């Protein structure tokens, strides 16, 4: 379930409780699961409970994959229910740490923006853009919200366009231009009694909502199962019946890329890849009271891994490391055919 799903369409409290139980069962996936649970707690208005989940992660002693992201989410949440001083202290700490992940920067900058700290929001967006995009010819998809957010804040401040604003324009994919979309005077259109003005504003809001939802946490994707070479060897040796599914490692990789491209061509959104391991697959089979030799279990295993936050989004950026583990850039490996098009 999407964490941004409206409250009338989902029981956020029950969904959070389910994710917390799943985290107890799979502690190795606690970070992804508890972050989603905290999002549901926030949407349910249970902000102290969400903070408790962030604190649970930060004090767990585990090596978190995204510690700055957890702190940023905690700061944003704290500010929403009156803990401004603590939130500001966390935000200052994140800015000092200068993480290389765009997500914490986006969250703390938008928290500042939401509380009318426009100058501080602008400084934060700009720090992040300079840190992550200086000397980068093609901005990675994850950095687009930084460019768009900075553009939005600068329009509210009445700042003149600069080179980063031009880059924001270049990555904007919606039909309504950023200057119009981020025009501070748009708010006056909402009070108009002119049907044409209202209709035009609704179109602008729809475009903005599309861009915003694209940047939000996504639901777990339609995921395809990838076995690293050593795991695939162990799997087929232990369960020879599965060798029909995986005639060779090269065929396995080719099948994954082909399946994902076919799904993408059909319009399926949020595609991903999950990596299997023999021990976790055997444990999953045992929980399903089924033999690991049963090939029908494989897609269920992939879906379960994805629901536990194990999926990696596909396709990678052309310059990113290929999903197959070759160490080469995706555009020079399994993405070479896509790059040529």
Summed over residues and divided by their number, the pLDDT gives a mean of: 86
Gyration radius (Cα, Å) is 22 Å
Strand fraction equals under 5%
What are the secondary-structure elements, in order, as H or E?
HHHHHHHHHHHHEHHEHHEH
Structural class: mainly alpha
**Can you tell me the residue ranges where pLDDT is under 50 for at least 5 consecutive residues?**
1-7, 210-218
Number of helices: 17
Strands of the biggest beta sheet: in what spatial order?
1-2-3
The main pleated sheet reads as:
3 strands, mixed
Separation of termini? 34 Å
Helix content: 55-70%
Shape: globular
The total strand number stands at 3
Pfam families: SEC-C (PF02810)
Protein name: SEC-C domain-containing protein
InterPro entries: SEC_C_motif, TPR-like_helical_dom_sf
What can you tell me about this protein's structure?
The structure is a single chain. By secondary structure, the protein is mainly alpha-helical. 59% of the residues lie in helices and 4% in strands. It is built from 17 helices and three strands. The chain has helices at residues 12-25, 30-43, 47-58, 67-80, 84-97, 102-114, 118-133, 144-157, 163-171, 178-181, 186-189, 195-215, 229-238, 249-265, 278-287, 297-307, 336-340, and strands at 222-226, 271-275, 312-313. A three-stranded mixed sheet has the order 1-2-3, with helices on both faces. α2 (30-43) packs antiparallel against α3 and α4 packs parallel to α6. The longest helix is centred in the middle third of the chain and has 21 residues, at 195-215. It is globular. The protein starts with 11 loop residues before the first helix and ends with a helix. The model is unreliable at 1-7 and 210-218 (pLDDT under 50).
């Amino acid at each position: 379930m999407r964490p941004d799903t409206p409250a009338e369409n989902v029981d956020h409290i029950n969904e959070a409780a389910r994710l917390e139980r799943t985290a107890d069962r799979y502690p190795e996936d606690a970070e992804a699961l508890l972050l989603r649970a905290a999002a549901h707690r926030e949407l349910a208005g249970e902000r102290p409970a969400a903070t408790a989940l962030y604190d649970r992660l930060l004090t767990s002693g585990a090596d978190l994959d995204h510690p700055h992201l957890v702190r940023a989410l905690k700061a944003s949440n704290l500010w929403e229910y009156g803990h401004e001083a603590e939130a500001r202290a966390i935000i200052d700490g994140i800015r000092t740490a200068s993480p290389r992940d765009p997500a914490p920067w986006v969250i703390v900058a938008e928290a500042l923006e939401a509380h009318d700290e426009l100058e501080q929001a602008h400084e934060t967006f700009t720090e992040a853009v300079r840190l992550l995009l200086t000397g980068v010819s093609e901005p990675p998809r994850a950095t687009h919200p930084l460019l768009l957010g900075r553009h939005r804040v600068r329009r509210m401040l009445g700042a003149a366009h600069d080179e980063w604003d031009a880059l924001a324009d270049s990555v904007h994919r919606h039909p309504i231009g950023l200057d119009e979309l981020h025009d501070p005077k748009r708010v006056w259109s909402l009070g108009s009694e002119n049907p044409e003005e209202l209709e035009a504003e609704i179109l602008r809001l729809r475009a903005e909502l599309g861009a915003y939802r694209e940047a939000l946490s996504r639901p777990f994707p339609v995921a395809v199962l990838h076995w690293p070479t050593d795991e695939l060897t162990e799997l087929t040796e232990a369960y020879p019946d599965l060798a029909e599914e995986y005639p060779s490692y090269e065929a396995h990789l080719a099948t994954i890329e082909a399946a994902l491209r076919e799904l993408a061509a059909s319009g399926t959104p949020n595609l991903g890849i999950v990596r299997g391991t023999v021990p976790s697959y055997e444990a999953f089979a045992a929980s399903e009271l089924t033999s690991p030799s049963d090939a029908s279990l494989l897609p269920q295993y992939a879906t379960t891994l994805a629901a536990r936050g194990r999926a990696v989004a596909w396709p990678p950026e052309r310059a990113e490391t290929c999903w197959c583990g070759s160490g080469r850039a995706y555009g020079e490996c399994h993405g070479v055919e896509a790059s040529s098009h």
